[in-house]
Amino acid sequence: MLKTLSSIAALLLAIAYLALGNGLFSTLISVRSSLQFGSTETTGAIMSSYFLGLVIGVFWCREVIRKVGHIRAFAAFAALLSILPLCHAFLVDPWAWAIFRVIAGLCLSGVFMVAESWINERATNKIRGQVLSIYMITFYLALGSGQFLINLDDTEKVSLFVLVSVLFSVAIIPISLTQSEAPAPVPKISFGVVDLFRLSPLAVVGCAVAGISNAAFYGMGPVFAKEAGLPLSGVSIFMGVTIFGGLVLQWPLGKLSDHFNRRHIIMVLAGLIAIICVGMAFMSGIDPLAIYALTAVFGGAAFALHPVCTAHANDFLDAEQRVNAAGGLMVVYGCAAASGPLVAATAMGYAGAEGLYYFIGGVQLTLLVFAVYRASSRKTILNVFRRPLVFAPRMTTVIAHVASSRDQNTEAGEEGEKDGGKL
Q1: Which segments of the chain have a pLDDT < 70?
Q2: What CA–CA distance (Å, rounded) separates 165 from 28?
Q3: Which of 225, 187, 188, 218 is nearest to 333 (CA)?
Q4: Residues with Cβ < 8 Å from 389, sequence gap 6 or more?
Q5: Measured between alpha carbons, how far is 128 from 126 in angstroms, rounded to an integer?
Q6: Of the candidates 6, 14, 152, 136, which has an alpha carbon nearest to the alpha carbon of residue 71?
Q7: Among the listed residues 189, 140, 233, 219, the one whose alpha carbon sits nearest the alpha carbon of residue 322
Q8: Which of 66, 94, 138, 147 would give a disulfide with 236, using CB separation of 3.0 to 4.6 Å?
Q9: Residues 6 or more apart from 287 whose CB is under 8 A from it?
Q10: For residues 245 and 302, what is the distance between their CA atoms, to the nearest angstrom?
Q11: What's the pLDDT tens digit per position in 291-306?
């Protein structure tokens, strides 16, 4: 384990810098856009553009990596990424910012695809699950910590954009200096979304709802916090505790989904998120501590929804189908996420800041109704046939290959133990 970790230490360091910079960058863009352009709809359109770039990157970045190699591709993507914060600072125009966000999403998709390919190659089957957990913790701790960097200076100054650029640039150094051999080509994953829907409609709808809800929060959450009366430091705490709440609560919620009917867990999560949204909608002017506590629970439930839905789909799949299925569900998640901030911003334009949670709550209620319908029209999967839930940052389809390889190894090990018992 220590030998493997030492071989990917440079990767984990690069991931930490990337997530740290992206955590600051996304919140900074949301806050600065609402101040600069005044319209929540404009802010929503700009924030939606980022998720559009992520989806494009799923298809385009793989070919770039295949043609020029992992290290060159990483350096190119990260170098372009480090330029974008400066472009935002010196060209303040909503159309330009939307284009910059598309490019940022594409570049981040590429650099994480390279990093995750390396992790997949270095992690052996025996420790794949542990390495995946370390990767997840590194990613979310850095992403959450990045929220607090916004307090270092005034958001209307150039300095925070420069800091983001520095963090992205520093991420290039560990990868460029690594002596490890480049990994094998990025695994190709097909996306049979129609077949997935026929196999598990609830999983597809659930992943789409998760994408819409999470993207709406990431894009417009800082705007809500600011308009709810929180100072800039309060906005960073609001975003940070939501991400940390998601990190802390994912494991217990995942364990519950491994022991109970996952349709019921999806119902509980959707209902809980909807109830929290009602509470959040009336939080303007309330004690900030109450807001932070409620949004931490919101993060735990909202961020667990997508992996639980993915696990629900895996219950109906053979081992060799799970990589493609996970990739397809991530594409569904990304495409739905591209609409989340834009529609949420429109709701906020009509209903005020609380429109964000009216929108998320309404989407979750739709999922709840659909989950009830599916539970009444299809039998559940017996526990013995279900696979354990795997949590991982949902940045690229490569992580689907890492998680699935770990899952297949677990399954093979269990079958081997059974065979050994028979002998």
Answers
A1: 1, 4, 7, 123-129, 179-191, 254, 257-258, 284-285, 318-324, 326, 378-423
A2: 13
A3: 218
A4: 254, 257, 258, 307, 308, 310, 311
A5: 6
A6: 14
A7: 189
A8: 147
A9: none
A10: 10
A11: 999 999 999 899 888 8
